[in-house]
Amino acid sequence: MSAKILDGRQAAQAIKAELAERVQVLTTSGHQPGLATVLVGDDPGSEWYVSGKHRDCAEVGIESTSRELPATATEADILAVVDELNASTEVTGYIVQLPLPRAVSTETVLEAINPDKDADGLHPMNLGRLVARVSGDITSPLPCTPRAVIELVERHGQSLEGKHVVVVGRGITVGRSIGLLLTRRGVDATVTLTHSRTPDLGQFLRQADVIVAAAGSPHIVGPDDVKPGAIVLDVGVSRQVGPDGQSSVIVGDVDPAVAEVASWVSPNPGGVGPMTRALLLQNVVEMAERQACRG
């Protein structure tokens, strides 16, 4: 069999259409949502991703601003920009694009963000709220990529309830927080967290009803690792030298041959990536709506 495609581009467009209507309501009432991005250095992948976020903002009516710093920026330089954005009344939420230069403490920078403006949902306070609430409404930003994974599956008519989800990767962006969302009441999945150093990783993958591959390790999930009929989401991104020996190409964590075993596969690119950007916008809109309610 050949897997069906979890089309992130199509689903993201549907979300952005919904958000555009909500933004119109906000702006009409005098509450203009605004997103800022902080980009340090000149990594091509980060530059491409940030520019995509600004294009998305324009589509739905969110104002956006960009702060760009050189790769030589110090931690103090970055924290000064963070302080500025925390104080800005025109910025509803913002993100500091990761990764940061090695000399900069990612933890220090993330913790300096005002939790109420944490568009990525990665501030320790917001993650802590997620830990503390297994059910009920959460009135703080949620981590975008884990939220995007769930939304992508559900918008294709698939339920995660009762499913065994095996996550590959333990990074802050996906692996360390996705289980908190997947095991909430209303989603009700069972989660196993693995990583590149898990002994006999394949034995865990073959038990999975759903695989979320987010290790950033090219083709770490192969067709022999997948239970027939499983849902497989390719989240991790690596870059390799292209066929011409000069350009770089994006390579996912999932071998393309997995499509011959799985029931559903998300492409990479074109799967979780567009959804992550859409859910970032949703965080900003939700933050603006909460601010509007507070007056």
What does this structure look like?
The chain is an alpha/beta fold. It folds into 2 domains: 30-114, 3-Layer(aba) Sandwich (Rossmann fold); 144-274, Rossmann fold, CATH 3.40.50. The protein has 9 helices and 11 strands. It has helices spanning 8-28, 44-60, 75-87, 106-112, 124-132, 144-154, 175-182, 201-205, 272-294; strands at residues 4-5, 34-40, 63-69, 93-96, 164-168, 190-194, 210-213, 231-234, 237-241, 248-252, 264-266. The strands form 3 sheets. The chain has a 6-stranded parallel sheet with strand order 1-11-8-7-5-6. Helix 6 packs across helix 7. The longest helix is centred in the last third of the chain and has 23 residues, at 272-294. The termini are far apart. The mean pLDDT is 95.
Notable characteristics:
39% helix; Rossmann fold; three-stranded parallel beta sheet; 9 helices; alpha/beta; six-stranded parallel beta sheet; 295 residues
